[in-house]
Specification:
By secondary structure, the protein is of the alpha+beta class. 26% of the residues lie in helices and 20% in strands. Its EC number is 1.14.11.7.
């Protein structure tokens, strides 16, 4: 890790390889399986409060050691040990067309509590995306080309006014945190309240489950320039599945006179090319988490593909294909836009058996809602952060 010297007039620090590639990939998995529409056009975000609200609080665990390391580094660098709280933690990605002009991070009255900013880059300029260079208005370095694992730390005030160039292709992904000396803005206190409410709700005759519960549909609808008109654009959950080569199939007939947004909360199956996968998922967010998990781990780990039973799939019938086309006509109105916003993963080898029955040791079990609707695997190896977590929500328990 190489640290660059800070300028007195423009306090900032660049840390190379602050995060490991595995940490970056884990956070990328969480973002691509949980994100919603962000705060600016062509931006997507995943906040810790959103993870709690969508019954995915277990996905917060990988953030915790990273947040602690960043806060300690900020306090050490700027001489404010034991003074700071974390004000905000979020995964933010910028797709084609996203940019932001010159600004400081405390440039609004409701942001004045922000004292320090930390941005960790989870993928690389020139490899995963084009454009999106980071510029400081004054001081050195003037320009930063994001590289996976690097972190930029700076004061949130006008001494570090900055901008980000427009992203021209790919998806630029960051972990962004703000720190404050004002304890009334402690993010952890707010998250604990949300978790307590969640636990109380579940204890009130609600079965305990870690299966994801999607947020309201308008949080997932992407359209150019964030137009509210749903006649154009696409649902980002189906969009990300489409980029991975999947279509969504619902067995029930669709009544076009009713509110079809509820359809995405219902059990469904995935299709790939001319095959319908046998397993049912609880809802579309559940299927997205399983698919993203597979493309994170399944394509790259030989251990992940050992001793796997054959998967089950059937050839799509004409009527099933027609239903898939109907779903796409509603939720993927612009597939060319999808392919522009999200990079295709077709370059990654797909093995149907390993997708359906993913296992670290070949011991496969099936449990879940009604014991028959969810693929589950019990991994025995606990060698890294991911496998120390209960991953029931994506079919890994």
């Amino acid at each position: 890790m190489a640290d660059m010297e800070m300028e007195e007039d423009h306090p900032r620090l660049i840390l190379h390889n602050f995060l490991t590639e595995d940490e970056c990939k884990e956070l990328e998995f969480i973002h691509k399986s949980c994100s919603t529409i962000g705060y600016r056009p062509n931006v997507f975000s995943t906040t810790l409060s959103h993870l709690i609200a969508t019954n995915s609080a277990h996905l917060i665990i990988p953030f915790l050691p990273i947040r602690d390391r960043l806060k300690e580094k900020v306090e050490e660098t700027f001489g404010c040990e034991y003074e700071l709280v974390t004000e905000f933690t979020g995964l933010i990605s910028w797709s084609r067309g996203a940019s932001i002009g010159w600004h400081s991070d405390d440039n609004r009255p409701y942001l004045k509590q922000r004292d320090f900013t930390a941005v960790c880059y989870l993928n690389s300029y020139g490899k995963d995306f084009e454009g999106g260079l980071f510029h400081f208005q004054d001081g050195e370095p003037k320009t930063i080309a994001p590289m996976v694992g690097d972190a930029v730390i700076y004061t949130s005030d006008g001494r570090n006014t900055h901008s980000v160039d427009e992203v021209t292709s790919g998806e630029r992904l960051t972990l962004t945190l703000w720190f404050s000396r004002d304890s009334s803005h402690d993010e952890d206190a707010k998250l604990i309240l949300l978790l307590e409410e969640n636990v109380l709700h579940k204890s009130n005759n609600v079965p305990w489950s870690l299966l994801p519960l999607p947020a309201s549909d308008n949080m997932y609808w992407f359209s150019p320039h964030q137009a509210s008109n749903q006649d154009i654009g696409f649902d980002i959950r189906l969009g990300r599945l489409h980029a991975l080569g999947f279509d969504v199939y619902y067995s029930r007939d669709m009544n076009f006179g009713s509110d079809l947004s509820e359809l995405l909360m219902e059990p469904m199956q995935l299709a790939r090319r001319d095959q319908l996968l046998d397993h049912k998922f609880v809802n579309v967010l559940h299927s997205l988490q399983v698919a993203q998990f597979y493309f994170w781990k399944g394509c790259k780990s030989q251990a992940f593909t050992n001793e796997v039973q054959s998967g089950k799939a059937v050839r799509l019938s004409r009527s099933q294909s027609e239903k898939i086309t109907q779903v796409n006509s509603i939720f993927l109105k612009d597939t060319k836009l999808v392919e522009t916003v999200f990079q295709s993963a077709d370059r990654c080898y797909f093995n149907l058996a390993t997708f359906l029955l993913q296992s670290l040791n070949g011991k496969i079990i099936h449990v879940g809602v009604n014991r028959d609707t969810m693929l589950c695997v019990r991994p025995v190896q606990l060698g890294d952060v991911f496998y120390k977590i209960s991953w029931t929500a994506i079919g890994i328990v």
